[in-house]
Specification:
By secondary structure, the protein is mostly beta strands. Among the domains are: about 35 residues; about 90 residues, Immunoglobulin-like (Sandwich). It has no helices and 21 strands. The protein has an 11-stranded antiparallel β-sheet, with no helix packed on it. The radius of gyration is 31 Å and the shape is elongated. The N and C termini lie far apart (about 65 Å).
Length: about 220
């Protein structure tokens, strides 16, 4: 293929491969080369033939793309049919796996060396997103929140978490939400455990508007 009498592209068919070349404006220097066989496809910048992107299959239903740098395979993006999952892997200069992130519609998993970590799945991130609810995180941390409507002044008010913490409640915070612009009160936590806490506020509210403690707890 020529442009203005200068060769800019070449398409060749061999016994075992098909090759497409893109030439520079001088018509002789190869800028990019795509080579395809029955099992893979290799794309490289011909100025550095060791830097390539390769597409190939490992098994009948497992396609993957490989990124090569200086003649070494350094990263792989792949799909595994048996897991129905996609993966992105980082390799070291010896071609060994350093880290891998694997993604499925129901989970997200990270592998570093021989250690495997479930970053997310439906079981370790359960939640109930309501006015008094909770959010579990994959790390084991649990966030919980709720409210106490029109709490009395100078009295410990017992709150019960939506779910019990597995080991400990690290901290419980509270704040006043009110329509009374004259209200001036802080909220303190006087006791906490895995199941609930005591909160106390100091304003004697007698109006008919909004006056409540909004609380937030962190634990695991």
């Amino acid at each position: 293929m020529q442009v203005g009498g200068v060769r800019r592209g070449l398409f060749t068919v061999g016994d075992s491969n098909v090759e497409i070349r893109k030439y520079a404006s001088n018509g002789t220097s190869i800028e990019t080369r795509l080579t395809m066989t029955s099992s893979d496809a290799v794309l490289n910048n011909a100025l550095n033939v060791d830097d390539i992107i390769r597409s190939r299959r490992t098994g009948a239903n497992n396609p993957q793309f490989e990124a090569w740098k200086d003649g070494l395979r350094r990263a792989i993006f792949s799909y595994t049919a048996s897991y129905d999952a996609a993966a992105l892997a980082k390799l070291d200069t010896s071609g060994n796996f350093v880290a891998e992130l694997r993604l499925h519609e129901d989970w997200l998993r990270f592998r570093s060396g021989s250690s495997v970590y479930d970053v997310w799945h439906a079981g370790n991130n359960a939640a109930n997103i309501v006015s008094s609810g909770y959010q579990k995180l994959a790390s084991g941390l649990i966030l919980q929140w709720g409210l106490v409507d029109k709490p009395p002044a100078n009295t410990n008010v017992t709150i019960t978490y939506p779910i019990a913490f597995t080991s400990n409640a690290y901290a419980v915070f509270g704040a006043i939400e009110t329509s009374d612009q004259q209200a001036n009160s802080s909220v303190i936590c006087t006791y906490r455990d895995r199941f609930g806490a005591w909160l106390r506020q100091f304003y004697n509210y007698t109006g008919g508007g909004t006056f409540m403690i909004k609380w937030f707890a962190i634990g695991r």
